[in-house]
Structures are given as C-alpha cells and as structure tokens.
C-alpha cells in the first residue's frame, strides 16, 4: 500500500516505464523501430511473426482492424528464447511470454503449474528482476462447476507453480477467458530491475484474502502496481466486485459504472490524479458480443479521448459481464 507520508513525485533516477501505445502497424515494426520491447496483436486475423517479442493474443478485438499494442523503451533491446519462455530486455525492463498447450500437461491446473514454474525458473536466472504485471489468457475459463471451474483450477495450479516466488508481494494481473484455440494458455509479463509498489482498492477485499466460496486457492494478484519511477500505474483486471461480492448481476450498465468507480478508487489510493486521458491505454473485456456497442458508447461518454480496446473476453466469474485493465500514465 502507498503510505500517505510518501511523496508521489516521479523518480527521475529510476528507469521510465516503457511507453505503451495502440497503433495501426505490422509486426515488422519490431525490426524497423528502435527500443521495441514487445508488440502484441489481437485475434486470429493478425499477422504472425517468429520474433520472440511478438505475441498474437487469442482474444478477438471488436474494433476491426485491430491495432497493435507496442511497448517501447529508451534503450537497445536484446531478445531470445529460453526453453518455452520467449523474452526481451532493455533499459532495465524485461518482457517474457509463454504459450502452452494444455494437452501436453494433462489439464489447466497442471499447465498453469508448469507455466509458473517455468517463469519462476526463468526469472531467477535473470537475477533479481521484479515481476510487476502479468496477463493470463485462458480457454473456456468458466467451464466446470464449483471448485472444478477451470479458472479455479488455474488458480490452484498457478499458486503451486509460484510457490514462495511472490512472497514479497503479488504483481498486478489480469486473468481472462479467450475464445481462441482450445487448450491454449497464454501468459506474458513485464518485469523490471526495480521494485514497484502494490496498490490495493479500499472498496474491495484484496484478492488474496477472498473467502473460501471463490475457490480453494485465492487468486494471487495486487489490484494495481505503481511503477518504480512512479510515472505510471499498472491496473489489474477490474470488475464490478465490491467487498468480495459481484455486484449488479445481469445489469451490464451498472457493472460498468461500478467498474469505473473501482478504477477511480484505485487512482485515488495510488495518489494519482483522477481520471484517464489520451496517454492511458485501457482494455475493456466484454463477455457478450451483443454488449460491445453499448460498452463502447458508455466508455466514449465517461472516458472521452481515452484509447480503449474492446476485447471479446470472459471475466473469471461467470456473472460478471465486463472487466477493464490498463495503464494510467
Ligand atoms: C476480481 O476482481 C476479478 O486471477 O489473476 C482480476 C484480475 C481477476 C486478476 C487473477 C482475477 C485475476 O476478482 C478477477
């Protein structure tokens, strides 16, 4: 948590957070532009490319053609592969990504466990990098009932693979269901040489303290991460959760307004100025295709000028219809 006594001025001696932008481009810009740490494409229609810094996310974007998400640093970037992990590094930053087929490991729980074991092993080889932000995209996330729901099994496997790796604090995270290739688990992360500062939401119970009804293993993530130089806040997947309960079941608009209230509460608790602007790329994950245009309308009204990608994705609780994550620069 951010202490009230701390001054939240930008720390110019620490590496500036990578620039994160959406733009119409091709994966070839990874070669032609400098400082490219990563580029993400969205959906099956996106070009493919075998550069380790490229990831084609299995979520479809409701905006066609979809822009790429580009991560850029003010430094030279090196990159490579290490077993199943693809990575890049430069300017004190590290991108790592992993794509696994669940059939190779015997289910989502074992696959999540393997993924996080691999990531932990890779990170420890990199020596002292801090994981600040992680994205998890999971097929059929709400399939199964009770503790057998696939998201809950993912949480079990993630915790087993993580072990004590996040003992000093969880990173900010997103876990969303994709409608792409069955059995595909995609995970990517941003790490840095310097530590960030985890930020919780006073309107919400911290996820790692969720009561038993949400699964055997509480999800290990922080609501947001203030980046080391304090020049940006990385915001976890945020939905209409108040306390630990889902609010406004069946009411898309009320869920969206509650989500925006949660985002504002996070900014306030991080001592960031209220509101989002043109430098704050967000993603809205929408469960039902039929809701996409209404979500776009409301967000254009409530967050004018803010770059928002509308993604077709399932929130990890089946009653939740929309979730938002992103950055406040
Ligand atoms: C919630 O508020 C929504 O399991 O990593 C949001 C962000 C959610 C990350 C995760 C789950 C995760 O509980 C769910």
Helix and strand topology:
Layout (H helix, E strand, L loop, with lengths): L18 E5 L5 H4 L3 E7 L11 E4 L2 E2 L6 E5 L5 E5 L2 E6 L2 E9 L6 H18 L4 E10 L10 H13 L9 E7 L5 E9 L4 E3 L24 E3 L6 E6 L2 E2 L2 E2 L5 H18 L12 E5 L5 H11 L5 E5 L1 E2 L6 E7 L1
Parallel strand pairs: 2-3, 9-10, 17-18
Antiparallel strand pairs: 1-5, 2-5, 4-18, 6-7, 7-8, 8-11, 9-11, 10-19, 12-13, 13-14, 14-20, 15-16, 17-20
Helix pairs in contact: 2-3
The structure holds 3-(2-carboxyethyl)benzoic acid.
The site of 3-(2-carboxyethyl)benzoic acid has 12 residues, from β10 and β14.
Description:
By secondary structure, the chain is an alpha+beta fold. The protein has a domain at 19-236: 60s Ribosomal Protein L30, Chain: A, CATH 3.30.1330. It has 5 helices and 20 strands. A hairpin with a 2-residue loop joins strand 6 and strand 7 (85-90). It is globular, with a radius of gyration of 18 Å. The two termini are 19 Å apart. Bound molecules: 3-(2-carboxyethyl)benzoic acid. The site of 3-(2-carboxyethyl)benzoic acid has 12 residues, from strand 10 and strand 14. Residues 136, 173-175, 207, 219, 221, 236-237, 239, 241, 316 line the site of 3-(2-carboxyethyl)benzoic acid.
């Amino acid at each position: 948590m951010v202490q009230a006594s701390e001054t939240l001025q930008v720390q110019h001696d620490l590496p500036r957070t990578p620039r994160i932008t959406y733009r119409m481009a091709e994966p070839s810009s990874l070669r032609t532009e400098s400082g490219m740490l990563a580029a993400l494409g969205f959906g099956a229609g996106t070009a493919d490319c075998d550069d380790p810094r490229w990831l084609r996310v299995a979520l479809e974007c409701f905006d066609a053609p979809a822009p790429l998400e580009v991560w850029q640093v003010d430094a030279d970037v090196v990159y490579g592969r290490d077993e199943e992990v693809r990575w890049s590094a430069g300017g004190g930053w590290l991108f790592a990504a992993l794509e696994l087929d669940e059939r190779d490991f015997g289910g989502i729980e074992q696959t999540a466990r393997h993924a996080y074991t691999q990531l932990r092993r890779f990170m420890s080889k990199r020596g002292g990098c801090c994981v600040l932000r992680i994205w998890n995209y999971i097929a059929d996330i709400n399939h199964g009932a009770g503790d057998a729901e696939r998201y809950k099994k993912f949480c079990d496997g993630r915790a087993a693979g993580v072990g004590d790796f996040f003992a000093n604090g969880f990173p900010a995270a997103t876990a969303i269901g994709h409608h792409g290739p069955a059995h595909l688990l995609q995970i990517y992360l941003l790490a840095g040489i310097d530590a960030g500062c985890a930020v919780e939401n006073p309107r919400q119970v911290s996820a790692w303290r969720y009561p038993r009804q949400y699964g055997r293993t509480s999800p290990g993530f922080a609501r947001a991460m203030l980046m080391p130089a304090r020049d940006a806040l990385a915001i976890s997947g945020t939905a209409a959760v108040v306390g630990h309960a889902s609010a406004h079941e069946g009411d898309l608009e009320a869920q969206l307004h509650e989500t925006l209230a949660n985002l504002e509460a996070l900014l306030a608790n991080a001592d960031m100025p209220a509101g989002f602007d043109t430098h704050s790329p967000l993603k809205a994950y929408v469960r039902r295709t039929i809701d996409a245009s209404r979500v776009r309308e409301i967000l254009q009204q409530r967050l004018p000028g803010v770059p928002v990608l509308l993604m077709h994705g399932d929130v990890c609780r089946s009653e939740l219809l929309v979730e938002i994550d992103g950055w406040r620069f």
